[in-house]
Amino acid sequence: MQSLAPVFWLLGTLMLYATVWAFWVQILEGCRYRNVGIVLGALVSLLPAIAVYKLLHLPSAARFVSVTACGLIGVCIAFTLGPKRVKDWKRLKQRKEYAWKTAYHLVLLTGSAIFIVPFVWLVTTSLKEEDEIFKYPPVWIPTRPVTIMYEGKPRPIYSFGIGGQLQQVMELAESGEGLKTVRVLDNQPDAGKTFTVPRAKLATVRRFALKWENYKDALNYLPEETHKGLLYLWNTVYITLLAILGTLLSCSMVAYSFARLRWPGRDQLFLVLLSTMMIPGAVTMIPVFLIMRSLGWYDTLRPLWVPAFFGGAFGVFLLRQFFMTIPTDLEDAAKIDGCSYFGIYWKIMLPLIKPALAALTIMTFMGSWNNFMGPLIYVNSPEKMPLAYALQLFQGAHGAEYGLLMAASTLVMLPVLIVFFFTQRYFIQGITLTGIKG
Amino acid sequence: MASYRKLSILLVAILAATLLGGCARKDNTKIKLVVWGLQSSEESKGLDAAVAEFERRHPNIDVKLLSMGAGGMNPQKLMTAIAGKVPPDVIYQDRFTIGDWASRDAFMPLDELIARDREKPDGIRQEEFYRACWAEATYKGRVYAIPYNTDDRALYYNRALFREAGLDPNKPPQTWDELLDYAKKLTVYDKYGNFKRIGFIPNFGNSWLYLYSWQNGGEFMSPDGRKCTLNNPYSIEALEYMVSVYDALKGIEAISSFQAGFKTQELDPFLLGLVAMKIDGNWCLDSIARYAPDLDFAVAPAPVPRARLAGEGRFAGQPKFITWSGGFSLAIPTGAKHVEEAWEFIKWMSSTECWRISCKAQQQYNLSRGRPYVPIMSASSRVNEVIFREFAPSSKKFSEPLRLFLDLMKVSKYRPVTFVGQRLWDEHVRAFDRATRHKMSAKAAMDEGTRVVQRELDRAFNREKFPKLNWAYPLTVISVLVAGFIAFVIVKLRRYGRIGKLGQGEAIAGYIFAAPWILGFLAFTLGPIIASIIFSFCDYDVLHPARWAGLTNYRDLFTYDWPDMSKALYNAAFLAVFGLPLGLITSLSIALLLNTKVGGMTWYRTIYYLPSIVPVVANAILWIWILNPPYGLVNAAWRATLTQWFGIAAPGWLTSEVYAKPGLILMGLWGAGGGMILWLAGLQGIPQHLYEAADLDGANWWARFRHVTLPMLTPYMFFNLIMGTIGVLQTFDNVYIMTGGGPGDSTTVPVFYLFNNAFNYFKMGYASAIAWLLFAIILVLTIAQLKLAPRWVYYESEKGK
Predict the structure, then answer these.
(1) Which of B10, B22, B615 minimises the CB distance to A388?
(2) Across the interface, do A115 and B670 touch by the CB < 8 Å criterion?
(3) In 3-state terms, what secondary structure has residue B543?
(4) Mean pLDDT for chain B overall
């Protein structure tokens, strides 16, 4: 039996998916057509599976397989029994659609689970007490020690073995050398007694609670002048907005030129453009810094957004690819109508490129938002620093304040998330972009 | 026209923003003293108190502290600042790098200031500092920094575990043989043969090969500083000893795996009893006091070779036990604007009063948070005696070890002060790595390290042979090139002139539209590129003018350093060949899945995009944890499935040479959601009528995908392929933060190798040569792709293809 375990687990997982899928499709159908019978039938069909779970005692792998097998069989039977639906072709089509969508969601959900797990860990860690952060097995639901108010101060509660029984005690005082004086709580058998015991003998009592203080502490951790990080936020927003504006304007112009207009030296310069991306930044860092400094831009934020107005190679390349997918018929029509090159660019090309512009916006936003090295090198005053700089303040020389770091990271990530969430619809145009068919 | 008006409004807005942003706040008359490297935070009450008191005593000085990142040092920032003549006034620098920077005139010698203020009450007097600290900040007889704090190392051992193993807790091991013996007795395995508790790990904590080597009488550099003696027989013996301990306890791979599960602070393995003995620094006392005050431990000097203990042979007259120290110091960079004020600041920070105030403030803060306070050690023995008297912990368990650490400072060694300090350190770590992993014998590993460092030494001493770079020559060459290009353009234009007005109009429009990029290129990019080409032919350490060295850098690249360079290229190739296709397929699949009209798509897309917006720092910590061999998520899932079913052991990921790169690839795949935006945008651009036509012809979904979707996506695939190649061959951030080159050089990628050379070894010229080699490789690959493109990329705008 043992060696079959992996096979059972695999089969069982597949059957579980199939069962859930079939079950859900039936529920959808029942709700859509207001047919209580179908819904009930689906629910009832799961009973044999539950029965098998409760009554048969098998090793876990075999049990898993048998439960899911029963579930699947039950659901299939419910599917085929029931009113004669096969004759109604509309309903058949509807069921097919439900089947398709449910399968789709199942796949996406599974994928999401995998993708989101690390992120969930990140966020829950930002809500944990210090000692839970690196526990193994990993803690998913943060808990906090329970405290009780006594004589005006909150006291932690522990459980401590007295006379063979675990009772709850509260801490009265702590002496050096790791000893604590505790007093048994009033609702316990030995109520009122006090003991002095080593810390090691006490087990903290915890309950589920989120440590929101991490967020507050993270903000308070930052230097005073930054008004709890708002200054960093403003700096970051300032740089990012300007960078996005500059990138969109200049990259689209330059990309249009490379994609659509013919001029001597164009292809050679395009190769040069690509080449600039192939040089690691580290070697040009010093000369670029010297240029910025001679322009008088040291200790300002200008080196971070002014270059964006001069066409970054990445954006130009990206938009050029998009421009080249647009058929020339539109342009020819416009030219015949006497439109200038700028008019073609502004009125025809740009609107057709919206998904690409949205994509470029997001990428520029992210790059600028999380940019750390640039500000570090060009800026000297802490009050001009952006958010990315603030994050590394939580990392001291001897280990980091992980809870605060995670909380700060989550806060830094939020705006990007929100921007992404709302610019998504520019990706969803779904209609023809060639514009020819009206 | 309406569009022009909108454009001009935009331009005005930009101008306004620029001016606003550039508005300088009114400067008050105080002097701004810029200090880099000290970090002010919630926990640094001691530092804040010290700075506040300084500002109180000097009302005309405003101290500006700027943190430089985790670890407190940032060579790029310092280098760019000094090169750009905008250095800070004071820098808080790790002492063992003083040799590197001082030898390149990055710091001001402080001898005159010291002599001038010697008799003053707050004067700095050499005899008050520990010999090890002062010497480490001295280069060629001149003092370049004032030591601030110090640390040293000794053996921590767990008395309770000693008792358990039948050893006398009052007799810690004193010789190397005893140490090995005790280590074996204290190691406990579980029923699967994994470590439950380990007796001793030679390089866990903070000892390094340096300690063992000094104990055995080996020195890494000759006294005159011109020869590297890393491979002297005593150091080799020390390394062999370390290897023998690792091997006696199942070898370094097993130990590293066990070590990867070590956590910090409360869950530090020594506190939890997972490690019975360790050699570590005095700073651990604070951690023990805070998290495990009940721990039954003690501290003894680190065990030495038996011959040293007995005072035999070459050890006659030498101290029985030694240690070594590190620490930070305060220096004034060359070109600092406010030297006098900086000096006042340094004198203040080194004074007893300041330490008193700072320790008091920190102690109060700690006690208010319910934690005990164990002071750190100042580099001045006079200050230390005062601090120890007033602030030592009351419990003997902590004050006795502190006393021991203080006493050991008298016999403490320090790392050689040389301008190849960082290089020497890195090579000694590599030698240690190679020997313990049995890739080379101890002797061979040390020989290799010596060879590398010696070459650097020789090169530097021969530097004067290279002539200074005369910028006139390259500038002439550039002007000729630019003139040539302009001539080429003019010739082409004249040919265009025959095409007619329409063609000319288009060409002019083309130039106008491309103007932003052309201007930006000329202003910001062309100069630096040409400069870096020139630097690649020079010996350039950023802090001094470049010296023309011809093809030396390239010659070295292809001969001496070829093993390292080819390893770096191999690593990059591995990541490209395996990571790129997987990444493209993953992001395309995700985009395809997310491109339908199912409800809740917005949420799904956000979830799949989430991984790419996590900031780099958080991402690094996240993945170090996820890929953690004993405790990480990936291995937990692995063990539950693959190990149980097929018996494949869970890999060591970032701690294992073989699996480090796959670990990086895995990390990249998680971020594949980022690439999906591009695919989505591209998918949206596929006209519906094509799909309708396909449907009419009776195509199923696979045929639609193959004949409509894929061909229409080829422009984006092309883009992704090129960007991907360029990107993967330039991987840097992850490696820099997470693996630092990886176990046994397995994740050293070309840009990381380049970065190290540029900013840690001061070899900017050599780094430029590496960059251009990399560039050449990428260029060849890109051109190949460009040439192949017309065969498979379909652009809707090019009819008839």
Answers:
(1) B615
(2) yes
(3) coil
(4) 84
